[in-house]
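lol so apparently i was supposed to do this last week
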Amino acid sequence: MTAPSESFAPRREEPVFARLAIIGIGLIGSSIAHAARDLNLAGRILLYDRDEAVRRRARELGLGHDVADSATDAVRDADHVILCVPVGACGEVAAEIAPSLKPGAILSDVGSVKNAVVEAVLPHLPDGVHFVPAHPVAGTENSGPDAGFPSLFLNRWCILTPPEGTDETAIARTRRLWEGMAAIVEIMSAQHHDMVLAITSHLPHLIAYNIVGTAEDLAAVTQSEVMKFSAGGFRDFTRIAASDPTMWRDVFLHNKDAVLEMLGRFSEDLALLTRAIRYGDGETLHRHFTRTRAIRRGIVALGQEKPETEKLRKS
Ligand code: NAP
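anyway here it is w/ NAP bound
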């Protein structure tokens, strides 16, 4: 059988890590397991999830080389450990595995919020273990071990937020792992990450959750009409609003300040648009929509999204 990933990234001759442990076998954990194995990024890959049914399913799917029955068994002797659990669970998992991490190991995570994860994990970090937090800016609305696929990170950003003074070799090896999965790596502070992601990811999700809820609450619009006429922009919101509730609850609870700051700015700008509509100020509306159209074209130019015409041709 040929590796499905051969088409999207080269397979390494030498693995980046001898032993990789993945804690949490959801969309992100299973995607890393697929990619790392297909692309020979780790000599041996061990997985663990607290849910026994998920562990069973991971074994059926053949994810990694082995699925351990405890987090400590999974991380023992690992060179690189990735926490792929919801943001709010990272601290407790770090506390559980800390005594089993070997000196020189690199601990990482994939949380969508970084500052809260750093604060929750650092107090448990044993001497001689390096912490290199990561956030792959890639995902789908699906969860669980069946949702993963090896090319999830292809051409997507992966942001590393190593605390000051982190060992440079540990950062470089973590970078190599993500670049091996065809991600584009960028390094910034955890605080900066949380502010940027609040506007580019967290607020859009909040808006989607809100608008889909509002549409459903409207007494005059039956649910079937919402479905029937959903092509007019609403359908994209429903996809985003189908994202994992636990993950997103944790994102908003742990990036509270940055999200509230962005929500304040958003509300002010919305008030300006509301006013333009109320007073028939077409010039303001047109100017605003022209500016935002340019932003969309910029994202397409950066290769982070395909133009709609190309998507339609492919589907
Ligand atoms: P997911 O599909 O819901 O999987 C998370 C898995 O972790 C679940 O099986 C969960 O089990 C398990 N888990 C929870 N607490 C645990 C613990 N204490 N010990 C061991 N396993 C535990 O989630 P995901 O989408 O892969 O997200 C994982 C992380 O990636 C999150 O931090 C998220 O912020 C980040 N992320 C997600 C995306 C995305 O689009 N999905 C993108 C980038 C980053 P239970 O079901 O029993 O809780």
